[in-house]
Amino acid sequence: MNRERPLFYFMKKCIRLALAQVNSTVGNLSFNAKKVTDYIKKAEKAGADIVSFPELAITGYPPEDLLLKTHFVQRNIDTLKDVANHVGDIVAIVGFADRQGAGIYNAAGIIYKGSIAAVYHKMLLPNYGVFDEVRYFKFGKNPFVFKVDDVVLGVNICEDIWHKNGPIKIQTEAGAQIIITINSSPYHIGRIREREKVVQANARNNNVLVSYTNMIGGQDELVFDGRSMIVSNKGRIVARAKAFEEDLLISDVIVDVSHKKVTRNIITINKEISKKVPVFPNRIAPLLENAEEAYRALLLGLKDYAAKNDFKKAVIGLSGGIDSSLVAALAVDALGKENVIGVFMPSRYSSQGSADDAKKLALNLGIRYEAISIEQIFKLYLITLSPLFAGLEKNIAEENLQARIRGNILMALSNKFGWLVLTTGNKSEMSTGYATLYGDMAGGFAVIKDVPKTLVYRLARYRNSILRVIPEPALTKEPTAELKPNQKDRDTLPPYDRLDPILKAYVEDDRDVKKILSLGCDKDDVLKVLAMVDKSEYKRRQSPPGIRITPRAFGRDRRMPITNGYKEY
User: Catalytic site residue 521?
Assistant: First the structure.
């Protein structure tokens, strides 16, 4: 009998990696610590050699100006030390905020057997888009390499891995065979493909295996999608975790230790990697189609915003239209039908079709439905204002009165019962100012604030493909605010299939008039739309937070001055 052991027992090591994509809550240090320790125990029970957690897992991401509070930073450091007490024969790599002298660092603690063996400081700090890390952190200076048994590893933190000449290059030259990357990379449509492309290129170009652990969860406007992954040194994705869910991805990877080329003094962790045959099959969660991906991002963002801010129930002004229908469906999926209230508030201009569609939607979703007419309140407003309005033609002032009455009613219900008011305005409306301050913009959370109108329809159809809950007329009838007789959105705006490409080019891609026109857009449409966008900045500045799902959202991404004399048209 041939009792010879397989070659990898002598020349290669099988190392078991665990990637813990967890949902931290910003500022809730004890909650985050318990989640981290629970996952450390799960990983250790599974026989993992190393378990990695997301960037700033202890503080939650992004902690923003909490980092300016000295006591918060100290408590997060103390919390990491408490976590270390729960670490046994497994190496845990945990994101936290470190302090050295007067400097604060975005850091990774490398923990083993109750002790913090080493700390790595993030070297490349993003300061664009939604990121503002230079405001808080100092730049790390030393690419970090350490050794566990015969395996040499490097640690990166998020932005570090996005640059081909970043720490990964120095770490692999120093002998690193595995790069452990911890991340809080926010979601937008198409982001996973960008992310994977960058990680694959860096793994391939540096001939090194990359373990990429990402945060999941909603934090105010941001959503983190998880989808942690392991990429081989050839650039092949060998494992991928779930999207928009907490997950512990465990994978056995083989590392060649026959030729050690360590070129610098490094920290050694005296943990033996037991000789084992790989038993964990590589799990590759599938990628999602864009509509499902965006819907699940909105769902997670809403669910976490409500839960993390202690809202149990939500109230929505139903109009019978597509926007409020989509928001209601999302609310039911996120919070449960028993926790959603739909309120239809008709005026003299509301059609019977809208009333029927709003009621049918509520019935299909199984939510509580209330109808509160605003006609009498509207009449009193008109009577009260008649001395000042006498002799003047009716215009947008009378239209907006109705929206503001509805906003007041919803806020009254919120105050009385503690319900979260979900606004129903979409990105096309927010961009052009086709929304009423203190009216349909009034509320606590703007679920589809970053969803263009054309995408609203796609998301509604996606939701109906699961179970038909949104009435067909909402998908097919011409959009209208119903604030005056025979009103249609196209009275004020170009049709949405013409409007949304202009908005994407101007708001998301920063293209000038000439480049937008080169896309085939109508010149009159372009000049009109750009003027509307620029004039509406003051409105957007007063809008509630909303979930970011596009590459450039209002607020965190696009920060334009309200008082602005620059014009491109």
Answer: no
Q: What CATH number is attached to the domain comprising 388?
A: 3.40.50.620
- Please give the residue range of the domain that contains residue 405: 291-489+535-541
| The one-letter amino acid at 529 | V
Whole-number pLDDT of residue 341: 98
With the C-alpha atoms ordered 295, 296, 297, 302, is the resulting torsion angle positive or negative? positive
Residue 206 neighbours by CB distance under 10 Å: 20
Q: 378 and 347: one domain?
A: yes
Q: Return d(Cα 156, Cα 236) in angstroms, integer.
A: 19
Residue 212 φ then ψ, to 5° = -120, 105
Query: Which residue is listed with tokens 């909402």?
Result: 474
Q: Of the candidates 285, 58, 55, 91, which has an alpha carbon nearest to the alpha carbon of residue 182?
A: 55
Active-site annotation holds for 360: no
Question: Which residue, of 231, 246, 273, is where some domain finishes?
Answer: 273
Rounded Cα distance, 153 and 191, in Å: 27
Structure tokens at 210: 């990359």
Across 342-356, b (16+ Cβ under 10 Å) vs e yields bbbbbbebbeeebbe
Tell me which of 13, 14, 138, 158 is the catalytic residue: 158
Residue with tokens 């888009």: 129
pTM summary value: 0.94
CATH number of residue 52's parent domain: 3.60.110.10
Judgement on whether residues 345 and 226 belong to the same structural domain of the protein: no
Task: Say if CB 84 and CB 115 are below 8 A apart.
Answer: yes
| Alpha carbons 434 and 487: distance in angstroms, whole number | 13
Q: What is the pLDDT of residue 263?
A: 60
Active-site annotation holder among 35, 122, 427, 453: 122
Q: Which of 55, 293, 399, 482 is catalytic?
A: 55
Spatial separation of the C-alpha atoms in residues 131 and 159, rounded to whole Å? 10
| Domain match, 340 and 440 both | yes
Task: Let me know if 521 is exposed, middle or buried by CB neighbors in 10 A (0-12, 13-18, 19+).
Answer: buried
**Which tokens is 10 given?**
């002598």
Domain boundary among 273, 308, 333: 273
Query: Has 261 been annotated as catalytic?
Result: no
Report the DSSP beta bridge partners of residue 353: none
- Residues 302 and 218 both lie in one domain: no
Based on the domain organization, do 352 and 265 belong to the same domain? Answer: no
Spell out, as residue ranges, where the chain has pLDDT lower than 70.
1-10, 259-265, 275
Same domain as 303, residue 246: no
Query: CB–CB of 204/234 below 8 Å?
Result: yes
Q: Which two tokens mark 546?
A: 């909303």
Identify the pLDDT of residue 165.
87
Q: Mind spelling out the 3-state secondary structure of 245-310?
A: CCEEEEEEEEEECCCCCCCCCCEEECCCCCCCCCCCCCCECCCCCHHHHHHHHHHHHHHHHHHHCC
